Write a sequence for this structure.
């Protein structure tokens, strides 16, 4: 078989290119496939972020506990967590899940370089970008029915910009 599946019980991840492929570097077909399936990784990431999965994993590495806290089905939760393993945000050992160092430093409450809000802002941008073709036909104008941003979207944007600004300011001072 080509590549190694993330989980024998979740073949859908390997079907959607969330596996370690056995291909030559710079294979143009593989590059196109990665480009076309990048949204899958984003959705796994955004779903986990919105649900607070990374914070939950700091206190419990157990799939059933995460499922109970999120209100998700255990099997589906395991598939999402395995997807996070596949994209390198979480590790798995002996059936227990742990956040990667990157996640611990940036995507959990109290992280030293907290980037949750800017990532949530990007998640909120999903709908607008998914209708890019329509926006191009309308000269980039948002649809007439688009309501104002929700308070949650505004909060994520403002706090995300503040987080980015803190990082930029610190870099300038060095």
């Amino acid at each position: 078989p080509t590549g190694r599946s993330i989980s024998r019980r979740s073949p859908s991840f390997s079907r959607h290119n969330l596996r370690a492929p056995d291909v030559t570097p710079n294979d143009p077909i593989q590059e196109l496939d990665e480009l076309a399936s990048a949204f899958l990784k984003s959705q796994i990431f955004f779903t986990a972020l919105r649900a607070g999965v990374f914070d939950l994993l700091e206190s419990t590495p157990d799939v059933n506990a995460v499922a109970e806290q999120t209100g998700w089905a255990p099997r589906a939760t395991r598939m999402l967590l395995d997807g996070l393993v596949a994209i390198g945000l979480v590790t798995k050992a002996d059936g227990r899940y742990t956040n990667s160092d990157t996640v611990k430093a940036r995507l959990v409450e109290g992280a030293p370089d907290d980037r949750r809000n800017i990532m949530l802002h990007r998640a909120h941008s999903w709908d607008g970008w998914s209708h890019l073709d329509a926006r191009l036909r309308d000269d980039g104008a948002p649809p007439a029915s688009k309501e104002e941003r929700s308070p949650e979207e505004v909060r994520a944007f403002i706090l995300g910009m503040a987080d980015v600004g803190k990082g930029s300011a610190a870099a300038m001072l060095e």
In short: Residues 28-51 form the longest helix (24 residues). Strands lie at 90-93, 96-99. The chain has a mean pLDDT of 83.
